[in-house]
Amino acid sequence: MPPPIIAPSILAADFARLAEEARAVEGAADWLHVDVMDNHFVPNLTIGLPVVQSLIKTSTLPFDVHLMIEQPERWSIGYAEAGAYNVTFHVEAADDPVALAKNLRAAGSRAGLAIDRDTPVEPYLELLPHFDTLLIMTIKAGFGGQAFMPELLDKVRAARRQVDAGHLELRIEVDGGIARDTIEAAAEAGADAFVAGTAVYASADPAAAVRALRQAAGR
Ligand SMILES: O=C(CO)[C@@H](O)[C@H](O)COP(=O)(O)O
Fold it and tell me: What NCBIfam families does the record tag this protein with (predicted)?
């Protein structure tokens, strides 16, 4: 497996200082994870395209945009055109996930498929060749600071088997409750990209927290 990706989630950052908070993990993090929520797909509201368009200009980090929104077809391409490295939408919200993945790639970003807590992964494994990342929620999407759910790692194991059997170039990303005491189990299950909000931004030294997570991932 390739070296782990550590992606701090700005959901746990100070929203009045987003550019500074992004800079605080430059040099330590691999990607910056940006949670977009619309208060419909999930019962929470964060930021949208105009904020991401501005924030992306202030950072050297690749942006890993996680759309927790209805109608991802309407908004996804705008994030790709804004320069996002990876744009992930939820399978539960998309009408035609493969068509949207193709459109994202054509617009210049990587394409990610997200699976929420209550959605099985098996029906979607055959779609993986069309994607660059598979984001498996290890909580219910919507809020940071929730407890990691180890029982959801069975989905990671199933995805890892599929990725390895098909020799796919796809990152398996986990999101929710990832911290120094949970990241190793996620890595052992087969995840190779890790989103962490609270574990990074509740720390007095976010860059050091990222380095500690990388070490705890064990690879
Ligand atoms: O997508 C989400 C929440 O829906 C996550 O990205 C959270 O932001 C992760 O936060 P922590 O669980 O690490 O605090």
Answer: PRK05581.1-4, rpe
